[in-house]
Specification:
eight-stranded mixed β-sheet; two-stranded antiparallel ribbon; 31% helix
Length: 374
Amino acid sequence: MASTVFFVDLSASYKENLVQKLGRLVEAAGLSKVVAKRDLAAVKLHFGELGNTAYIRPVFLRKIVDLVKGQGAVPFLTDANTLYAGARSDAVHHLETAVHNGFAYSVVGAPLIIADGLRGKTEVAVKVGGKRFDEVYIGAEIVRADAFISVAHFKGHELSGFGGAIKNTGMGCASRKGKLAQHSTLSPKVKAKTCIGCGDCVAHCAQGAIRLVKEGEAKEKKAVINEEKCVGCGECIVVCPTGSVQIQWNQAGPAFLEKMVEYTVGVLKGKEKKSLFVNFITDVSPACDCFPYNDAPMVRDIGILASTDPVAIDQACADMVNAEHALPGSCLKSNREAGEDKFRSVYPHVEWEIQLDYAEKLGLGTRKYKIEKL
């Protein structure tokens, strides 16, 4: 049976602005069935890295917070610390970044709580009995919450093809230990022929796993990655100006995507009827909001979707993006026409469908959906 995915476009008028439309969308998708009086409700989002401007605007989170409060529940905004070095790798800097990007209490009307604590070690082991993991490590405050609302910016992603509800949940809610476990097969390789020895990857590696080495009769130093030190966070892949740092996708890709899905199972365990997913198809940048910049959007802003099915909503979002023509000035060099796979154009080695197939197999939802436009 197909799942219902509710949708609003971005048109507005003096009779109903976009924030009001978002409220109508969330209510139609079943917020009242997800949160109950006195529930502590985790609203999981990405606060955005410093310098990135594609993350969801705080005013939209304020609306969701107000609606949750209207049900008599108690919402808090949350995310877990990052594995890579950046402005969100510990709770202090994470909260400072969130406030800098506009998510102060005075704006959003709810407290900010970093789910896995000061240094990313406040976690709960959740039994999942999966193919990749027997148990997964989730930020404790998300596990202990009564209800879960994912609010995701739908965009491209360098490791999963796209990032939506599943990635926001499975990767986003994992503690640092959990993130490391998911990335552990992702040690990249450097293509020496095109490496220019600029050192950008060295400067951005939090683990000190990359160094510049002059080998044999080579005239210039090249980047070399120590696989034992590498944690597979993928930051070097994006900062490389020549695209010389590459994941070995023949081995790592399917494993990573399946691990992420099993973490999603862990996050939602016990909350299967207490979860709601909201995806914004706006500012569809080619890479994650974890980077301190965002490239020009690949397609136009499309709208906002909501569903209690994380698989259906991600499938619907991917289909809507791929149905669009590419925008002028975007990074897309191929698959620019309506109906062509935009994510494959940017990340040709990422089989993003794997996450949806596996999530469906594990009972997280269905890839079959019907759109109900409000």
